[in-house]
Amino acid sequence: MLYDPYAAVVALPTPSDLALAVRLAPVIRFAANEPFLPSKVGITVLDAPGRSPSAPLDVTFEHGVVRALEYAIWWDWDIQHLYELEHIWLKLDAEGAVVDVCASAHGKLVPMRRSDGSLPVEDGRITLYSEPGKHAFHAESQSIIDRREQLTACCTAMTSAGHVLVNQMFKERLAAVTAEDHRAVRRHLQNRAFLPVFDFSKAFDLAQVECMSWPDLYTYIGPRVLQVLEQVRANQPLIRAVFLDSGDTLVDEATEVRDVDDHVVEAQLIPGAKQMVENLALDGYRIVLVADGSLKSFANILGGHGVSEYFVAEIISEAEGCEKPAAKMFYAALTALGLTGDDAGSVVMVGNHLGRDIKGANELGIISIWQNWSPRRSKTPSDISEVPTYTIANPSQLPLLLAEIECAWGRTALNPVWDS
Predict the structure, then answer these.
(1) pTM score > 0.90 for this model?
(2) In the chain, what are the domains?
């Protein structure tokens, strides 16, 4: 069932309610180098305690509270995902004075009181502190500084966890988001990694942001997420396919057992090979087997190990009537994905054989990745055509290399999306 922003029993804010919300709007202190700032606020007026209409949180009334102003604060970006919605609740007494404050922090509703028990007021305004990159609220900066190590990790190394945030509220609206979309957002955020400073001198007046009713903000959010995603996809190039060899790339040839017809009936995978393939598929890469050998051999080995299910297509020399480095093998793989030779520069070929995998890829302009794992093949290129674009030592290194390639493409792409 589609989420209903009107489900909570609350009246839409009147013009005077919106004016009151603007007049009392909190100030948010951000880190001096915070890259993301709010752009919209959805207002709800709660005249009784109960469930928030814009968050799965219960708002209570204490300390003489008779009314609460809910600020659902919208960002296009968090350092780890596309879109952010955090909340502040100002609780008013019968005289209209703010007597209590709560705010959201990592999915929880948290009372906003200083360590001495006082309300967080600066120059007559409720003033809260926002975590760098993550935006969870605190009443004092020290509690953020206490999380320095975790927050620094979130804003640097852990940007690799980036994705389009698809929670229950917007699940149906964002049902078309793909694993490839998540990867595009991840690369975009990896390029926005920053070392946060814990100087909260950037004061942001929430009254300066466009305020509207929560249902109006809810209506805005779905299309806005897709709009930002479209911008990211337009500016973040991605690898369009990963071609994988089999022998000594996925399968340890030293463990092969063959029958009387020279078909491989069993063999062991190289350590980390299956996990690598699973990780690539989870990240939305389209994977094609491009290998020399018999159909039966690959069905026995890769099918038996549960690897074949991750391939979008299998291009096998027995079926094609030729072996790598023949261009026909690589063109067949491109065609299977609806690609052409013009797309070669956005495709990678991973293999162990310089004279077959690397040479064949290089001659078509495909990005060549040599896996220098096997002791059974030459490690010296015979000429320039066998020099790989990149080299890895084992399968587990491939996902990181592909991420580095895509991040580099994003940094050099024209008109990158850096605005918040």
Answers:
(1) yes
(2) 15-235 (no CATH), 241-407 (3.40.50.1000)
